[in-house]
Specification:
The complex is a heterodimer of chains A (259) and B (282).
Chain A (H helix, E strand, L loop, with lengths): L15 H18 L2 H24 L5 H19 L1 H9 L1 H5 L7 H20 L2 H10 L4 H27 L4 H18 L2 H10 L5 H9 L2 H8 L5 H24 L3
Helix pairs in contact in A: 1-6, 2-3, 2-6, 3-8, 3-9, 6-8, 6-13, 8-9, 8-12, 8-13, 10-11, 12-13
Chain B lengths: L6 E10 L2 E11 L3 E6 L6 H8 L7 E6 L2 E2 L4 H7 E4 L11 H11 L4 H14 L15 H13 L5 E5 L7 H13 L5 E5 L3 H7 L2 E6 L2 E7 H11 L3 H13 L6 H17 L13
Chain lengths: 259, 282
């Protein structure tokens, strides 16, 4: 019969931060293995930059605001395509059981996948840097405003990617994850339009539901503040707080929803 | 000093809606023991393994691995087990070597120890020729060995292997069984299989599950002795045990007995050579 000294001692598991870092590296590699990064990245950068350049030459002002105006809608379509596989594919291929049999809390892979998707989104955003260079070459841009707008763009991505992670965790079908995420995010963007808010307010003036949805629920007013060059504390709290709740919900779903 | 039970399962129960997957299952596995789990499809083998891996929580009873509760101390349990998931789910787009390194890192292996362990498991699982190949391009046999290699990369004291020889050809099966036998010292190995000859070749003890109930928990020598005294072979004895269990009111009477008997008989008689065709390269 074996004794205590015979029993192998397994290594100490990694900390949550280290495990998340390992997942980040693995996920970033998978974006390139599955060609998500080059295909979606090229499409996103081409579409965003071409739409902007068309307007840029018509207006003739050395200003990037037009690029940031279109970003929420583009992100609402492209970012669900990045997150749709995150958990849905793990469920479908049953690798989720492998991943969650590892000695780490569900939070570690959730954070890892989220940070990896955010990294990919930042690469997408970096595709607009030639426009920054062009604007700087043609005029005297407001650097503070541009930096604040990029910070807003990153925060918008934080929110959208966290929402996409949660939706992906709720299904085993990545197409369903994409459609539901995209519809949800487009709705959030549309609710931020003052014209939509006015229409909704008109339906029930006492409730002022349109104004409430625009000012409290939609990310657009917060994003617009950043795009105008103002780093607002309320915006930081809105984006980071909501994303934290969504990511915690993702970890909870992965813990509870195990067939 | 003898080590306490590596796996201890007490009155374990689990339901999926109206279906009882496990009911009152109790057993233990000590260090140095290899225990085979046999049963027809739907008997509860995978549910049992999923509870031991902490993937599922039991509805009743408890399971402990090296004294750690699978619900309250799930991380400690996961640190100490190597688990091969049923159907061997793998990250298809990864290179075999990258996959083993990923699992090793997530298990806390670092630097030269990680490299040494990956080299070791690649050697014992005969994976060196395919280390730089994508998993999706590997044969079924190689994929199965990748799954096993990942399960043992951190040298766990407890191994839980759900149908580890599925898809292996007879030569690979023999090599695998020899390999599992070599792991015996200091470890507890619990593995399921549909083929009795493979289970009986290396197991010290057999657990037979039927409709979520443990209908037999006996050492191989005891089972063989019983079979000899009854004047039947081991296969026939197991079929008889299952038939007797299936005929009890809880499992649906004679009709259930016929289904269960047929399943166990098939498991007992299915030669490994019949499964060799599964192993063709993809």
């Amino acid at each position: 019969m074996s004794t205590v000294s015979d029993v192998p001692i397994p290594p100490e598991p990694p900390s949550t931060g280290r495990a998340a870092g390992i997942v980040v590296a693995r996920e970033l590699a998978s974006y390139f293995e599955t060609r998500i990064a080059p295909v979606y990245g090229t499409a996103f950068i081409l579409l965003a930059n071409l739409l902007f350049m068309n307007e840029f030459f018509l207006l003739g002002t050395a200003d990037m605001s037009g690029w940031f105006v279109r970003l929420p809608l583009l992100a609402a379509v492209f970012l669900p395509a990045v997150t749709m596989r995150s958990w849905a594919e793990e469920r479908r291929q049953r690798t989720l059981e492998v991943l969650l049999a590892l000695p780490v809390t569900p939070g570690a892979p959730v954070i890892g996948k989220f940070v990896a998707s955010l990294g990919l989104y930042c690469i997408f955003l970096a595709g607009s840097l030639p426009i920054v260079a062009m604007v700087a070459w043609l005029g005297r841009p407001d650097w503070g405003r541009i930096c604040a707008a990029y910070l807003g763009a990153v925060l918008l991505g934080v929110l959208f990617l966290a929402a996409g992670q949660l939706v992906s965790a709720l299904t085993a079908d990545q197409i369903v994850a994409f459609v539901v995420s995209a519809v949800l995010l487009i709705l959030l963007v549309v609710l931020g339009d003052p014209r939509v808010a006015a229409v909704l307010d008109g339906l029930a003036p006492v409730l002022a539901a349109g104004t409430f949805l625009r000012d409290v629920i939609s990310p657009i007013p917060y994003f617009e503040t950043f795009a105008q060059g103002v780093v607002a504390f309320a915006g930081l709290v809105y984006f980071l707080g909501t994303a934290a709740v969504l990511l915690a919900s993702t970890a909870l779903v992965l813990t509870l929803n195990r067939p | 000093m003898r080590h306490p039970s590596m796996i201890r399962v007490e009155s374990l129960g689990r339901r999926y809606g109206d279906v009882t997957a496990l009911a009152g299952v109790t057993f233990q596995v000590d260090a140095g023991e290899i225990v085979g789990v046999l049963g027809p499809n739907g008997a509860g083998k995978s549910t049992l393994f999923r509870i031991l891996s902490t993937w599922l929580a039991p509805d009743a009873g408890r399971a402990r691995v090296l004294g750690f509760d699978t619900v309250d101390q799930a991380l400690e349990v996961r640190q100490r087990i190597g688990y091969l998931v049923e159907h061997n789910a793998l990250y298809e787009s990864m290179l075999v070597e990258d996959y083993l390194e990923f699992i090793g890192r997530m298990r806390g292996l670092l630097g030269s120890r990680l490299r040494d362990r990956v080299d070791h498991v690649a050697g014992v699982c005969a994976l060196e020729p395919v280390l730089r190949r994508r998993i999706q391009d590997c044969s079924k046999g190689n994929r199965q060995r990748v799954g096993v290699a990942a399960a043992i990369v951190h040298d766990p004291p407890v191994l839980i292997l759900d149908e580890p020889t599925h898809g292996l050809d007879p030569i690979q099966v023999k090599a695998f069984l020899d390999f599992v036998r070599s792991l015996r010292a200091g470890r507890a190995v619990l593995f399921s299989n549909h083929v009795l000859t493979e289970l009986s070749a290396i197991s010290d003890r057999l657990l037979v599950l039927l409709d979520g109930r443990l209908v037999a928990d006996e050492t191989l020598p005891d089972l063989r002795a019983r079979a000899a005294s009854a004047g039947v072979g081991l296969n026939d004895l197991l079929v008889r045990l299952v038939r007797e269990a299936a005929e009890t009111p809880a499992t649906g009477g004679a009709a259930g007995a016929e289904v269960a008997e047929a399943a166990v008989a098939a498991a007992a008689e299915k030669p490994a050579t019949e499964r060799a065709g599964d192993t063709r390269a993809r």
